[in-house]
Amino acid sequence: MSDKKAVIKNADMSDEMQQDAVDCAMQAMEKYNIEKDIAAFVKKEFDKKYNPTWHCIVGRNFGSY
C-alpha cells in the first residue's frame, strides 16, 4: 500500500482515533479485497476497541457493514 495515502476530509474523532482508523483500514486492505469485507473488519475492530455500535462505509461502491 506504499503508493496510496489516507486522506481524512472531516472527522469528529480524536487524532489518536483517526490514526487508529487509518491503521485499521490499511490492515483490512492488506487482508481483504472486497469492500464489504474491509468494512466489516474495520467495524468489528472499532466495536472491540471503542465499544459498539460503529458503521463503516468503504470505497466508491459504498461497501458497508
Automatic annotation (TrEMBL):
Cell location: Cytoplasm, Cytoskeleton; Nucleus
SMART domains named in the record: Dynein_light (SM01375)
One example of a Gene Ontology biological process annotation: protein transport
Top-rank lineage group of the source organism: Eukaryota
Keyword vocabulary terms for this entry: Cytoplasm, Cytoskeleton, Dynein, Microtubule, Motor protein, mRNA transport, Nucleus, Protein transport, Transport
InterPro entries, alphabetized: DLC_sf, Dynein_light_chain_typ-1/2
Primary location group: cytoplasm
CDD domains referenced in this protein's UniProt entry, alphabetically: DLC-like_DYNLL1_DYNLL2 (cd21452)
Transmembrane segments: none
GO terms for cellular component: cytoplasmic dynein complex; microtubule; nucleus
Pfam family, one: Dynein_light
Single GO term (MF): dynein intermediate chain binding
Family that this chain belongs to: Belongs to the dynein light chain family.
PANTHER family in the cross-refs: DYNEIN LIGHT CHAIN (PTHR11886), DYNEIN LIGHT CHAIN 2, CYTOPLASMIC (PTHR11886:SF113)
Protein known as: Dynein light chain
Organism of origin: Iconisemion striatum
Gene of this entry: DYNLL1
